[in-house]
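P.,

For your records, the input lines for the assembly:
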Amino acid sequence: MSTLLEVRGLNTVYRTTEGQIRAVDGVDLSVGRGEILGVVGESGSGKTTLATSLMRLIKPPGRILKGGEMLLDGEDLFRLPRSEMPARRGRDLALIPQSAMHALNPVIPVDKQVAEAITTHGEASRKAALRTARERLVEVGIPPERHSAYPHELSGGMRQRCVIAMAIVNEPKLVIADEPVSGLDVVVQARILRLISDLKESRSLSMMLVSHDLPTVTRVCDRIAVMYAGRIVETGEARTVFEKPLHPYTRALVEAVPRVRGPKQDLQSIPGDPPDLHHLPPGCNFEPRCPAAFADCKTVDPSLEEVEPGRKVACLLYHDDERE
Amino acid sequence: MPRPSGAAWRRIGGRVAQYALVLLVAVSLNFAIPRLAPGTPIDYLVPSEQVATITPEQRERVLAQFGLEKPLLEQYRLYLTGILRGDLGVSAQQGRPVVDMLLERLPWTLVLVGGAITLATVVGGGAGFLSAARRGGRTEAWGLALFMFLDSMPPFWIGMLLLVFFSGYLDLLPVFGALPTSGAAGGFGLTLEFAQRLVLPLVTLTMVRAGWLFLVARSSLAGELSEDYILMAEAKGLSRRQVVLGHGVRNALLPLVTAVAVEVGTVVGGATVVETVFSYPGLGRLIYESVLSRDYLVLQGAFLLLAVGVILANLLADLLYPILDPRVRAESLR
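Structure tokens returned:
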């Protein structure tokens, strides 16, 4: 599988009253053509900032530090002048934003909103764009009689489908989906995930899917990257990461998943709180909450190292050479 | 925009009926308030220097002239039927029908208030939107400071400053009234004279009211721009300009419509002060004069007219809202 997206050394910082925080801290990642990469982490781990950074839609007081690279089909989008980004957004790479419930303009019918994504990029007439928009809406499962509805007249699942239609309408190379099923009930979640899987098959969609929900991500993604405090701490093939997690944080995430089958167990939660990005521990960011921590973890900040082919972990347990 | 359906017409009818009820309440209050005021009607109906000296017969005659010797309910009935006939009584000071006096002043105020609201909406609202779109920049900082300053200035003070500067110091504009008192040219010349005299009161009133509309527009658009649909619109590939104008402002207009409607009442209040400062012959100045001379029927008539104006403005906003916002359309259909 050839590489579509290659991100290297991405740093996104926010200026706050207490100083600068690094919400995305030196992230490297890649997405192959026709692949879905899942990015998993708890609230505040930097997932949304990562997704927004890749769209170059970070607003002050946040900014992307210079020096990072984002190669899409070999072209570094971070080097493009800001004024060229609108032409790329929606066509080269598209976003399905968090809380898609509110991602639609309340005063415009949904088919017009989808059509606008077409007309803004091209030569298509309003009429032709509207026709294409409606075809896409049918493709994502919106019946024709609902096409000219206003967002408030549609259910959460329907709105989410409209947003997905809007994201795929220009056949972007990469779709970035930020929590595409949060806020929906379980049955609708399953349907939307099915839709995403179907679209991946039918359109060989390449996608980065951001979520806090590890099992969900495992189901639809090919590979997973686990984020903690702005960094990627583990990556690998989706099933392997879920079934044999290496990083203690990933292990904790897996154990926090309630099991429906098998003997009854108390639900495991991860002790402690996500770290305050203003005051990160000197060693490993996860050390204060880590059940497997040992002395070196307090001083050595582990880097993301390959431990098996296609498997990387940032944890001293697996880095013999980094221990002091 | 959908064509009004049967249901929409029913909704419009319902709204109009509601406002008619509000109007009836306003009319009744207008009837009641002078009668609840301390003192006897004689204090208000007879020029003050004569109150002490009039005879009981004269007193009876005055009361009878205004129908005040009749029972209260009968007075109320007469008041209502009078309004329906377009009869608001006769001015105690000038002996002319109140309706005539009001109609004579109304056009001047309509020009002033209508112009000020339009200008304040365009200037204040426009600057507010611009300021929200340029958040964090210098435009926003200066704009905010300027309009906050304007919003906190009393109208009479701004009016007097302008008057002193432009008419007194620079001698650019005439000071007094709406039309020259003598030697009036016809046609174009007269229009020019009127325009020159309108400038200062209009600018004063606009300056005073633009501040509030600026703040409403600014906070409304700033709120909209932080919504997720704005992010989505940008992610679709729209330019920032298209996003702000086509999506943000479109939604931010809603609170502004309400604010402008509310503004109608406030601007009329401001007009009283401004018209007095500039001796502009509008309703506001008539109210001021009538307060000074205790010309109660004129005041009553003027208040009635203002109430009608404010109610109409609100009705208009109420009817405009469903056109701008499909969510309101759905709600009022329920």
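Two observations worth noting. The radius of gyration of chain A is 20 Å. Chain A has a mean pLDDT of 90.

Regards
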